[in-house]
């Protein structure tokens, strides 16, 4: 029997046409997810902004054997019932690495060269010479040692930035959590690129911002939940750190009345760091390739450790 | 007798105190330059925005034996009489290479990630997801094969950008002028980092902007005179190219009523690409080191070929 692939989407994913005859593709919105889940063999969480899976997951009842999310993080879909089940969860590991790394480099360089101020002064037709900073020779601490964190560290190193990587478990080239405070205390750039898990929830709090240098710049390209946003706002207001850029937020889209929009020293971007022209295509191609392996009974790539909340290993 | 060092400055240079007892330091503004030049052994052009040397140079009369400019370019001081004289001209080669390279990388990445638009949308408190571009795999053409051009090419290559370098004379790793149109025709990023000479004056004209791709982004970190600004304005208005960033202009400071300030797609910055915290210090240190060699009768570094208008050689 042709397996049923249930797609939770807003816009239909590209490339699934390749599965014609090999899969029965059923689209759903969040409202109809719960009623359609039991009949599905596979769930493709294409709308990675939705938290609907957590509420709709059918406990002990009939359920998909495989859930794939078109995202690096899985925090939006994990729930105890899914974690306890024998359903395999996979993610889009690999698609976002280089784009996110370049995005972080763009922020670091733009801030070092005072580009946001240059654009402001241009609007005022004001010629005001300023001194930038050299990026080569500065220090970064990248928190998160998955493919995105590692690509970010590689790119910063290529720019001459001395970069330390922090992960859950110390290993060659990766510091453990015990080194975190020491490393962020001397970093010019602190980059959050970790998955959101029980351990990482609000790990960037008043204590951590207090440990950083007054000249430090903080970047979050991981998940909004990694940061205590109120603590960050206070740290910026009190000049504990020099500035920050958030691409992810506790609530997305960031509400129009959020004070974060106008916080001095904060750059707000709409969860776009990993998204480059062609990315939806890449995500579609990746799912099709995984589906072909699954249908052939072969092991799936990028299997998430449902307890830890990410794909473990190097 | 203690040699006289005449310093053309607006703000006094740092580090010259090291020459106490070994040089008689005399400061001058542009208005008094002509009357003081004949008595000077050395002229330090610290105010590199001034064109006063060209008018004040004392033809056949007594004149400094050495002129050093605290800049990479020498276009602001060269004149036929200085070129014909036996006075040695040196420049600040080496101080600006890495800063300018990083500045170009900052622009390339910021544009690829649509950062200027992100900052605009933030002011409007608008969450609007967009797709950036991957920088790795794009193509750049850097025009100018001196230390600044080479450092820029190295930095772009480190980001995965396929980068061609164009110089006056083809050699290993450097294309000659004959390849220029072919290379800019397929470049995503065209970077002007050449000295201003008779050959390079307005080399970026309507023809060159017409050859570039509609998606191309043009950056000028060389000299304003490299670009026909009216042709660039038309090229942007007609969408011949996607955008541009100018750090240097035919007239500096750019007048408040210049149409360039508000040209859609153009980023205007105040001739700051090479200037990072500590740069004035570095320039002072560099002059002091050169002075010590000169006073000892040893050969000077960074001697400019006065006919070509730059320091030749690799």
TrEMBL record, chains A, B:
InterPro entries hit by this protein: D-isomer_2_OHA_DH_cat_dom, D-isomer_DH_CS, D-isomer_DH_NAD-bd, NAD(P)-bd_dom_sf
Residue ranges annotated for the D-isomer specific 2-hydroxyacid dehydrogenase NAD-binding domain, each copy included: 106-273
Keywords attached to this entry: NAD, Oxidoreductase
Protein name in the entry: D-2-hydroxyacid dehydrogenase
Family, per entry: Belongs to the D-isomer specific 2-hydroxyacid dehydrogenase family.
CDD domains to which the protein is assigned, alphabetical: 2-Hacid_dh_1
Domain D-isomer specific 2-hydroxyacid dehydrogenase catalytic span(s) in chain numbering: 29-304
């Amino acid at each position: 029997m042709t397996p049923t692939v249930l797609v939770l989407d807003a816009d239909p994913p590209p490339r699934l046409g390749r599965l014609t005859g090999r899969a029965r593709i059923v689209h759903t919105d969040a409202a109809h997810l719960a009623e359609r889940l039991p009949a599905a063999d596979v769930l493709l969480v294409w709308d990675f902004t939705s938290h609907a899976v957590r509420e709709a997951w059918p406990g002990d009842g009939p359920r998909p054997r495989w859930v794939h999310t078109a995202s690096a993080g899985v925090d939006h879909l994990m729930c105890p019932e899914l974690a306890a089940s024998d359903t395999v969860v996979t993610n889009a590991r690999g698609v976002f690495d280089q784009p996110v790394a370049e995005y972080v480099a763009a922020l670091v360089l733009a801030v070092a060269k005072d580009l946001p101020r240059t654009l402001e002064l241009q609007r005022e037709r004001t010629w005001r010479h300023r001194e930038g900073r050299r990026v080569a020779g500065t220090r970064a601490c990248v928190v998160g040692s998955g493919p995105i964190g590692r690509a970010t560290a590689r790119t910063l190193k290529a720019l001459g930035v001395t970069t330390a990587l922090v992960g859950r478990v110390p290993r060659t080239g990766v510091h453990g959590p015990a080194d975190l405070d020491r490393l962020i205390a001397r970093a010019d750039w602190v980059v959050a690129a970790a998955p959101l898990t029980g351990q990482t929830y609000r790990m960037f709090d008043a204590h951590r911002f207090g440990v950083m240098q007054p000249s430090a710049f903080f970047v979050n390209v991981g998940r909004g939940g990694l940061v205590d946003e109120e603590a960050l706002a206070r740290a910026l207001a009190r000049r504990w750190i020099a500035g920050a850029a958030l691409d992810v937020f506790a609530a997305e889209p960031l509400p129009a009345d959020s004070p974060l929009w106008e916080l001095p020293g904060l750059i707000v971007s709409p969860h776009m760091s990993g998204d480059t022209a062609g990315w939806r295509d890449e995500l579609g191609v990746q799912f099709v390739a995984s589906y072909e392996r699954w249908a052939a009974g072969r092991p799936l790539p990028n299997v998430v450790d449902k307890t830890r909340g990410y794909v473990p290993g190097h």
